[in-house]
Amino acid sequence: MRRVLELHELLRSEKYPNCSSFSKDWEVTTKTVQRDIDFLRDQMGAPIEYDALKRGYYYTDPFFMLPSISMSEGELLALMIGTKALEQYKGTPLAPKLESVLEKLSDILPDEISLQPSELYSSFSFSSPPAIPIKPRIWETVVKGLLSQQQLEIEYNGRKSSVHPLHMANLQGAWYLFVRFYDYDNFRQISIGRIEKARLLKKPVNAESFNAKNFLSDTLYRFAGDNDPFTVRLVFDKAVAESVLEHEWHPNQKTIVRKNGTVELAFTAKGDVEVKRWIMAWGQYCTVKSPKWVKQMIDDEVDAMIANRKKAQLGLNPK
Question: Which among 21, 19, 22 has a CA at the least distance from the CA of 31?
Fold first, then answer.
């Protein structure tokens, strides 16, 4: 069995083993190795073919797995819950592929595992913010460009551009591609769902000085960038204190519960527009303590809203 497993790994990693070389490594006859290959192909259903140029065998499907697996019911439960959680990423070609993988795993599990995927799926639900669906062809082209480190020509917001794909990230259920445009030195974040067309260019990617961890650090929701982060301190009314405390709004947040029942929340983030919208969603129950420029930004927005309301009351169209 150890010999068959090593043969399987060589085939899967495209090392192109043959009967002669493998028999010497294991000190067996070439006929024994041929029987091992026949066993994998005929009994295990392995997609084995011979490459005459490379003088060795290989798998036509590099993702083939031997149909033997040992998994506890708890491990299966964790796997299926994780797969169910990935439903929040609908709109990408990953969804049907993940379902196919789970079905294959279910088919080769031992009969004594009594937990069925259909039973589990009716017991758990997941939801996420809406995201723009991604066309399968766009997804595949972008992923190929990213993994092969080739530049892409994309049509985005009606403009055709050449970009260097550097990193993909799922932020709050939406997929984003971080790129360097051919005519810019800095990095940009674009929505993959808004890419209208994409094709591979036979040009290498320049990923110099890009650091995905730094780029994504201090992100509040869906905005990530290389601009400077800032620390915001907020005070929430006791009427919403429970709602504030039951969530982690940012990985570096710090909370203080005051004696009067109010809650002080502080975190460091980037993206002033996104932070402003998040604060304003709390309405009258949230007060900006610092910095002053964020407080002024909120005040200006409130003043503009009041002005628009007055214009609407007078029958005038707001700007």
Answer: 19
- Could you give the C-alpha distances from 35 to 6, 49, 66, 284, in angstroms and in order? 15, 15, 17, 76
Q: For 243-279, how does the pLDDT look when each residue is reduced to its tens digit (9 = 90+)? A: 999 888 888 899 999 999 999 999 998 888 889 999 9
- Looking at residue 86, its pLDDT comes to 61
Say what the pLDDT of residue 105 is.
62
- The SS3 assignment for 235 reads strand
What does the DSSP 8-state code read for residue 319? Answer: -
Q: Which amino acid is at 254?
A: K
pLDDT of residue 201: 92
**What does the alpha-carbon distance between residue 139 and residue 165 come to, in Å, rounded to a whole number?**
12
Mean pLDDT of 199-211: 87
Q: Give CA–CA dist 184/196, Å, rounded.
A: 21
* Long-range contacts of the stretch 295-300 (C-beta < 8 A, 24+): 297/272
Backbone angles phi, psi at 59, to 5 degrees: -90, 130
What is the C-alpha separation between 143 and 251, in angstroms, rounded? Answer: 28
pLDDT surpasses 80 at 89: no
The C-alpha atoms of residue 283 and residue 276 are separated, in whole angstroms, by: 11
Beta strands in 172-223 (DSSP E): 174-181, 188-191, 195-204
| Residue, of 185 and 252, whose pLDDT is higher | 252
List all residues 6 or more positions away from 16 whose beta carbon is below 8 Å from its beta carbon: 10, 51, 54, 55, 56, 57, 58
Query: What whole-number distance in Å separates Cα of residue 299 and Cα of residue 166?
Result: 38
**Cβ(142)–Cβ(177) under 8 Å?**
yes
Among 119, 282, 264, 137, smallest CA distance to 198 is for 137
Cα angle 164, 131, 90 (rounded to 5 degrees) comes to 95
Contact 215, 224 (CB under 8 A): yes
Q: Which of 265, 272, 174 has its CA nearest to residue 225?
A: 272
